[in-house]
Amino acid sequence: MISGVGGFRRSRRRAEEQWQRELLREIRALETTDDSVDVGLDGGTVTPIRGPLPKPPRSRPPRRERVGRVSTDRRRTFATVGVTACVVVALALFNLSPGAAQVRQWLGIGADRLGAAVDGDGRGDYAFLATRRGTDQPIGWSPCDPIEYVVNPDGAPDDWEDLVDEAVTTISEATGLLFDYGGETDDRDFEGRFGIGGRPEPVLVGWADEDEVSGLAGDVAGLAGPMSRGNGLIETYVTGRVVLDQDAFEDLEPAIGTERKQRAIIVHELGHLVGLDHVDDPDELMYAETGVTELGPGDRSGLAILGDTPCA
């Protein structure tokens, strides 16, 4: 009986060992992605077995990724368009070429002209006092702002108001620039036309003699010139002066056609004020020694160009 019980126990132990060995083989056969080391039932270790290799990515990304990328691309496109638009607007604002002025009008930015531009035919001789650096575009007054002026009537002829008004009207119609009369003044500072803080004062029109203004010495009947502000590329006339020789105007009093000649002198000097220089053609009013009393074809061509400069 004893031997029979021992045999049963040995048979049972062999069965348990066989079961453990089969269980161990099954565990070793398992595929796992765990990187840790497992302890076997027999006290040994089981080397981890990596799972199958991941599948290669599909040729088309998941819908969520595609939507995200499209959204990002659209944001980048919108940002690029925005930056481009800002550059265009900046160029239009800071570029003073006639084409850029037209762009500003299309975009609805910047000021508008006060008066209509004048069409010039380009005939005749004309010259400009100054041009913008590196271009053939003349420096001029902003057609979006009036040219403010005041008159000091000391030493002027009795009909000075009519003379000045008619001369200003002539230049305004030839340029499309508008003038704003600020009335009479006792100011006689023909040199410094910038006030406190560099603010431009109105253009000063007045009469003087060579003792007060040395440039009127000799046969000079008048002096005039604009004063600009800017850096060469972006430069605009903002003030100036017109000085008329009171002795020359008095000498013309007895002559036939006095008013016509006096007015012609003022128109000539206002031509300088808006930016015209002398020419060598005696048929033009901007000839240095004025012989004619009306604007010539070259005078009108140059004045039309000066009136069509971009708004400041």
UniProtKB/TrEMBL annotation:
GO terms for cellular component: extracellular matrix. The keyword Kinase does not apply. Keywords: Hydrolase, Membrane, Metal-binding, Protease, Transmembrane, Transmembrane helix, Zinc. Residues 36-70 are annotated as: Disordered. InterPro entries: MetalloPept_cat_dom_sf, Pept_M10_metallopeptidase. Pfam families: Peptidase_M10 (PF00413). The chain crosses the membrane at residues 78-96. One of its GO terms (biological process) is proteolysis. GO terms for molecular function: metalloendopeptidase activity; zinc ion binding. SUPFAM superfamilies: Metalloproteases ('zincins'), catalytic domain. This is Matrixin.
